Amino acid sequence: MDGGAAAGAAGGPEVAGHGQASAQAQAQAQGQGQGQGQGRGEGQEKGHAATQGRPLVLDEQLLGQLEQNANVCAENMAHLLGSLRSALHAISAMSTQYMDTYKDSVESVGENVTMSVLAMHQFIQKAKELNQSLKGIEHLEKEITTIKSTLDQLEAAMRAMNRAPR
pLDDT of the chain along its 166 residues, tens only? Predict the structure, then answer.
């Protein structure tokens, strides 16, 4: 008898090798697989009955590997959370920059609209002033038309005099 079997026979906690734990896990899986065709109670009873008479088997090597895997998983999780934090920080910074750019563009558009409205108001005011100053032109147009017709008559009279025999 080896040390593990002797300890098991004496009633103390038994430490099994990695191969024994795998064999026991396979046996339990087969027992549960056979119980699937039957009612739920029978499959569970077989698995439970298999561990009732024997003490709990602990594999120190398996526990060490489990602890090592848990530590690696914790490191990976810490790295993942750090990467996530960095990515979220970068996205937040980019969002802040986009909002600043949007704010600047809205302010710029607002200023340009205000300047355009002022320029249009000034243009309308100058058009009104020009319209007021051109109201006297209607009278000048009549005078220019009268002067032009008088000049045409004078020119016609001069031509008539130049054609007349002397």
Answer: 444 443 444 444 444 444 444 455 455 545 444 444 444 444 445 555 555 667 777 788 899 999 999 999 999 999 999 999 999 999 999 999 999 999 999 999 999 999 999 999 999 999 999 988 888 788 888 899 999 999 999 999 888 888 876 6
Does residue 11 contact residue 55 with C-beta atoms inside 8 Å? yes
CA dist., res. 153 & res. 155, Å (int): 5
Beta carbons of 31 and 47 less than 8 angstroms apart: yes
HEC assignment per residue over 130-166: HHHHHHHHHHHHHHHHHHHHHHHHHHHHHHHHHHCCC
Q: Closest Cα to residue 4, out of 40, 49, 57?
A: 57
**Distance of alpha carbon 7 from alpha carbon 1, whole angstroms:** 10
CB atoms within 10 A of CB 151: 10
- For residue 64 the two structure tokens come to 């060490």
* Phi, psi dihedrals of residue 10, rounded to the nearest 5°: -80, -10
